[in-house]
Amino acid sequence: MTPKKEPGERRGRGRPQSFDRQKALCAAMRLFWDRGYEGTSFDDLIAAMQISASSFYNAFGSKEALYHEVIETYLSVAGGWFLSILREDADTRTVFRDLTTAAAVEFTRPDRPAGCMISVAATQCSPHQTRLRDLLTSQRTQAEDAMASRLRKGQDVGDLPADTDIEALAAFYGSLLRGMAVQARDGASRERLLEIARIGMQAWPVT
């Protein structure tokens, strides 16, 4: 299916792709991560990606189609730690302690924009960008579902009380991680986020 072009955009007829696609996607990812979708202009993108307008349209079709691809790039390049920790062979409390601690580290890496691209992206957008809002909402829901799944596993093996409200606990830690992402965007230090993570673990159910 041909990606929908945004108003005023025209597909160029440039030469075949001759740039490093992954490198260009990572450059676009950093820009979207730092400025958001609507805060990133087309000129910003082609400058950061170091490609021509015609190469952009030939390779990606539109800004919106590029953003969808950038989200996948983010999940594989910068967000892989999340699922990796959930798959740790450890008791459930240790897994969630590691998850919140890793978030404090990942959200404050000096070589990347602060926070989490998925957590802070498209929570508010113009009416004609509802598809992007729904995309990011879906990604956040999937992250929370993954945490709930890991909590159920813990409940099954007995390291969570049988009466634990799994959905509420997953929502709590999802909210904690998103709040830490916003704190990082606002300039909170890694030490501050680690302290927030430590306090967040005090809500862990007592077995």
Order of helices and strands: HHHHHHHHHH
Main sheet makeup: none
Coarse morphology? elongated
Number of helices: 10
* Secondary structure: helix percent: 55-70%
Distance between the termini: 52 Å
Instruction: Count all strands and give the number.
Output: 0
Mean pLDDT: 89
Report the uncertain regions.
Answer: 1-14
Multimeric status of the protein: single chain
Structural class: mainly alpha
| Rg, alpha carbons | 19 Å
Percentage of residues in strands: under 5%
Describe the protein in words.
The protein has 207 residues and is mainly alpha-helical. The protein is 63% helix and 0% strand. The chain has ten helices and no strands. Helix 5 (80-86) packs antiparallel against helix 6 and helix 8 crosses helix 9. The relative contact order is 0.12.
Annotation keywords:
207 residues, single chain, elongated, 10 helices, mainly alpha, disordered N terminus
